[in-house]
Amino acid sequence: MIFQDFQLFVIIVAGGSGKRMNSEVPKQFLLLQDKPILVHTINQFIDFQYPTTIIVVLPNENFDYWEKYIGDYLTKFNEIIFVKGGETRTESVHNGVSEIKKLVTKRGLVSIHDGVRPFVSQALILNSFQQAIEYKAVVAAVATKNSLRQIIPNGSVVLDRTKIVEVQTPQVFDFDLLYKTYQNIPNQEFTDDGSLVEGNGTPIHLIEGEYTNIKITTAEDLAFAEVLFQKNCLE
User: Fold this and answer.
1) Single pTM value for the model
2) How far apart are the first and last CA of the chain?
3) SS3 category, 61
4) Which domains does the chain have, with CATH numbers?
5) Residue 168: exposed, middle, or buried by beta-carbon count in 10 A (0-12, 13-18, 19+)?
6) Cα(92)–Cα(113) distance, rounded to whole angstroms?
7) Which residue in 6, 5, 4, 1 sits closest to 172, CA to CA?
8) pLDDT for 199-235, tens place per residue?
9) What is the separation of C-alpha 66 from the centre of its chain, rounded to a whole number of angstroms?
């Protein structure tokens, strides 16, 4: 077995609000084909072929309500660990990492995945874990398809899009590396865990992501997700 010497974990980050969706309901709990987006995401890891401990970070506010709400849709609810989120994404992931610290008994690999990326494929989950065995810090990314410009004080300048990628999740890390990073968080803003780990001195290894692995953050994204669903991107 490829992972016989490892423990596999995933932290599914779902502690956000619905501000960009203009919804009173946090976006991860909005329905996609009669199930919350988050449930579709969780099921992708439930279906993963290798045993993986699933940790879901839920909003601290009304935590008990959201835990029960999600549990009502899950057939394997009792196998999932729910933890409370923090004020920021970094704090939420930190809470998930702290939970893993209680469970890890050998070398751990930790996948961190956005709760609103329900179309992540089994192939991408597998490849990200495999690559992390060697590289310890793996980030999925796709080449940008659009022309790009950078805003500067007196206008804008064109950027070479062949040198730009769009970062996705999953992002997979050696647990010891991730744990040490979260004990020594640099005093600056980071929008993803790969940048945080890199800020602590560890190089990031990029792997090819998937254009269908969208992050649902707006009403337009949700409409597109319905189209993807109809095209059998999710079962």
Assistant:
1) 0.94
2) 27
3) coil
4) 7-230 (3.90.550.10)
5) buried
6) 12
7) 6
8) 889 999 999 999 999 999 999 999 999 999 888 756 5
9) 19
